[in-house]
Amino acid sequence: MLTLAYQSLGVVYGDLSTSPLYVYKTTFSGKLGLHEDDEEIFGVLSFIFWTFTLIALFKYIFIVMSADDNGEGGTFALYSLLCRHAKLSILPNQEATDEELSSYVTEGPTDSSQSSALKLFFDKHENFRKGLLVFVLVGTSMAIGDGVLTPSISVLSAVSGIKLKITELHENYVVVISCVILVGLFSLQHHGTHRVAFMFAPIVTAWLLCICGIGIYNIFRWNPRIFRALSPAYMLKFLKTTGVEGWVSLGGVVLSITGVEAMFANLGHFSPFSIKIAFTCLVYPSLVFAYMGEAAFLSKHREDIQRSFYKAIPEAVFWPVFIVATFAAVVGSQAVISATFSMISQSCALNCFPRVKIVHTSSKIYGQIYIPEANWMLMCLCLGVTIGLRDTNMMGHAYGLAVTTVMFVTTCLMALVMTIVWKKNIITSISFLVFFGSIELLYISASISKVPEGGWIPLVLSLVFMGVMYIWNYGTRKKHQFDEENKVSVNRIVCLGPSLGMVRVPGIGVVYTNLVNGVPAVFGHFVTNLPAFHQVLVFVCIKSVHVPYVRENKRLVISRVGPKEYGMFRCIVRYGYKDLQQENYDFENRLVSGIIQFIETEEECVLKPTLPEHTFMDSNQEDNVVHSLSDFQVTKSGIEHLENTIIKDESLQILKAKESGVAYILGQSHAKSKKSSSVLKKFAIDIVYAFLSKNCRGPDVILNVRHTSLLEVGMIYYV
């Protein structure tokens, strides 16, 4: 546990621990002045201490950390919990068999009258279910905006300290150095965080010990009375004496808790207890002493407010601390970049983001991924923010709005989790929402006042990301609705066979579909224009379920379509929202192995009626699946061996069909808006969604389909 706690320092706390670089500088960047009586400094420190204690310690460490989804944290984990317990999901293709997954746990205390009423309310009002998804997407888009702002403000704040020693260094050079570091940081992402992770924890540990030691030194050297600022009375005095300017300055105070959402989002890499140990034993006291020490220094050096952090460092240790600060800023940026990759991956799984290339960067640590398109997009945006603003104060104003919005979304979702999942009294949930929500709304209101001074950046970024995510989700839902309404009957296709001159050709035909039942319209379109299909036909559906991971032995669900003589099967490939749909997945062999095992299990069902009928879930362990693949190797010697062991005729036909070849039929459905649609809808569907559909990665990549085996069938549907 202690080892995990130590390792979490490098991954979880990089962003949070670098906040002292810019908190005081941003807070006093406006018209707020410093007077001789230290009221403002004591008031700001009191706000920082109690905000850090209430939000980071009490809310996240003591409460939110307990709301994990099979060990996973973050906004999507909370949404997934709610979807499972209250049937809030708007994901298509959800089935009762999904609830048989071991991680699909909904047991707990019996529903109270209040939780039942809330579930019934969401069940009756589809618009509120859609509204909840939009609310989650707002938080996610703001969190992705964090991935743009964090590297920019952290690196630029760390590098700007060099101007204290090299006073003649022009600001342009500081910006250039920061950009070089950012380019280097993003260029190394494809190697994966695991290659440099061994140095992350020591860097953050050294950084925390440095700022803690310097903080204690400054307290006793400059102003031991600073401990008085821990009294909440100084917050009231601060607001009373400073008025509107004091309220506006709170947009800088909130930067002291940037990174607390990362503690929850990175829960899957560690355990809740290890993260709590690291925070309470090292991170919390170190940052509190750092903020107190800097406030003590400021009380005697008011003129150094815009460079107080580096000015407060004793001369003898300036350069070592500067170097550690730069490394810590890079580590903090790395944590947020990795979290952004994870959020985009989860959004793709929930049909809220176009499918992009996702690369595993570690064979040992699951969840460490790299998304090339997102990486270069983030790099360009970071460089644009750094070069365009050149000012950490303006970046801080933008940063504050993004951070507070994400935290407020988490608070609202937690209130729902308390009632629906934990079955707590609704008074408890409302008290939680009012107490923490009012604090966060106070900071949101202060940050909104900074919109003209940089706060517009996260609004624009989140609006763009939100637009992309919602349009993609809307178009995907309409496509599924079209497929559902235009399903084709298998019996009708078979009956039309003689009149169309339909023939069955050797081989296996794999038809990709969005449906978990019925025959897709694209297949009917195909056979009416080309009246021939394969001897063995498999309808494959790739879908996501509301659990983090689906075990490999539960991945495929195979069933039969129509009577046995039709030779048609259905295979549902299930993924959790944190599973990676890998390109190197040996789909063909796993599919054939699964079908053969289904046939044998189905034969046993005839003899043992108590077994489930017509549906087979691969219940062997993954190594047994590999073993079965070697047993069913499609070679002449393999077939002879199977004949000698008296394998059933249908199983042998499957293997012979596999030897003849596997062809993939993919439907390319193109959405078009109706003539009566509004201009906005035509722009969203005909331009944005069409562009995203054309440039995203198709299911052929997930199924690892060779281009020589691919046949695409085009259709147009109107929304």
Automatic annotation (TrEMBL):
<dbReference type="Pfam" id="PF02705">
    <property type="entry name" value="K_trans"/>
</dbReference>
<feature type="transmembrane region" description="Helical">
    <location>
        <begin position="196"/>
        <end position="220"/>
    </location>
</feature>
<keyword id="KW-0406">Ion transport</keyword>
<protein>
    <recommendedName>
        <fullName>Potassium transporter</fullName>
    </recommendedName>
</protein>
<keyword id="KW-0472">Membrane</keyword>
<keyword id="KW-0812">Transmembrane</keyword>
<dbReference type="InterPro" id="IPR053952">
    <property type="entry name" value="K_trans_C"/>
</dbReference>
<keyword id="KW-1133">Transmembrane helix</keyword>
<feature type="transmembrane region" description="Helical">
    <location>
        <begin position="246"/>
        <end position="265"/>
    </location>
</feature>
<keyword id="KW-0633">Potassium transport</keyword>
<feature type="transmembrane region" description="Helical">
    <location>
        <begin position="41"/>
        <end position="62"/>
    </location>
</feature>
<feature type="transmembrane region" description="Helical">
    <location>
        <begin position="365"/>
        <end position="387"/>
    </location>
</feature>
<feature type="transmembrane region" description="Helical">
    <location>
        <begin position="132"/>
        <end position="153"/>
    </location>
</feature>
<keyword id="KW-0630">Potassium</keyword>
<keyword id="KW-0813">Transport</keyword>
<feature type="transmembrane region" description="Helical">
    <location>
        <begin position="173"/>
        <end position="189"/>
    </location>
</feature>
<feature type="transmembrane region" description="Helical">
    <location>
        <begin position="317"/>
        <end position="344"/>
    </location>
</feature>
<feature type="domain" description="K+ potassium transporter C-terminal">
    <location>
        <begin position="506"/>
        <end position="717"/>
    </location>
</feature>
<comment type="function">
    <text>Potassium transporter.</text>
</comment>
<dbReference type="InterPro" id="IPR003855">
    <property type="entry name" value="K+_transporter"/>
</dbReference>
<feature type="transmembrane region" description="Helical">
    <location>
        <begin position="429"/>
        <end position="448"/>
    </location>
</feature>
<dbReference type="InterPro" id="IPR053951">
    <property type="entry name" value="K_trans_N"/>
</dbReference>
<feature type="transmembrane region" description="Helical">
    <location>
        <begin position="277"/>
        <end position="297"/>
    </location>
</feature>
<comment type="similarity">
    <text>Belongs to the HAK/KUP transporter (TC 2.A.72.3) family.</text>
</comment>
<dbReference type="GO" id="GO:0005886">
    <property type="term" value="C:plasma membrane"/>
</dbReference>
<feature type="transmembrane region" description="Helical">
    <location>
        <begin position="454"/>
        <end position="472"/>
    </location>
</feature>
<feature type="domain" description="K+ potassium transporter integral membrane">
    <location>
        <begin position="4"/>
        <end position="493"/>
    </location>
</feature>
<feature type="transmembrane region" description="Helical">
    <location>
        <begin position="399"/>
        <end position="422"/>
    </location>
</feature>
<dbReference type="GO" id="GO:0015079">
    <property type="term" value="F:potassium ion transmembrane transporter activity"/>
</dbReference>
<dbReference type="Pfam" id="PF22776">
    <property type="entry name" value="K_trans_C"/>
</dbReference>
